[in-house]
Amino acid sequence: MTAPPHLVVFTGSGISAESGIKTFRASDGLWEDHPVEEVATPGGWRRDPQRVLEFYNLRREQIRKAKPNAAHKALAALEKDGFRVSVVTQNIDDLHERAGSRDVLHLHGEILKARSTVDVRLRYPLPKGGIALGDICDKGSQLRPDVVWFGESVPLFEDACELVSQADFLLVVGTSLAVMPAASLLSYIDLDTPCALVDPDADALTPPGVLAINTTAGEGVPALVNQWRKQGNLMLP
């Protein structure tokens, strides 16, 4: 039996922005008017854990209210049609999962989970509410957001590299390909594996050998998916 075509999708903040989730703006070093070093670094956590918890509690509520957009839904529909779809995302929201995608690897963690500050294996879902000072893990240590901050290692990077190396087609959506180590994922695809980038600034962002599709995720991804569903394969015209 022939294996189903395997699409690996690498998504960044651009896909979530179309659902109303604000992105980190590298040009001014702010994330929703907060200096990144104060709310998204180990040093910021040490200096003022209360501020960090409040920041992520607010973002958690924003994400719970957001809804998957056409791009998220299109990828889930392709999976339902029998394609193998693996999503590697830099995003900490759960919009891919809520759209119906079942194979999602969160490189930078998940905001709807908390984890121990002494044992990274201890993770706890947050179906509602947030994290407060005094909330502790099973080992008695303060809980923190289960996200990868600037300056921390990316523990799932090797898993992401393995997925990318297995792809029949790599689709990059809504990322500047500027944040390391995630940006180096493209170097792990086979030389003959087709790759496309969907982004309004794709011409400026796309490295050699990658097809630039200059449009939003909400327009470009459904168009590609509809084509693949009709063709039954991952070939471009």
TrEMBL record:
Major enzyme class: transferase
Domain of life, source organism: Bacteria
Pfam families: SIR2
Keyword Transferase among record annotations: yes
Deacetylase sirtuin-type domain mapped to chain residues: 1-231
Binding-site list for NAD(+): 90-93, 174-176, 217
Subcellular location: Cytoplasm
UniProt comment concerning the protein's domains: 2 residues (Tyr-56 and Arg-59) present in a large hydrophobic pocket are probably involved in substrate specificity. They are important for desuccinylation activity, but dispensable for deacetylation activity.
Protein name: NAD-dependent protein deacylase
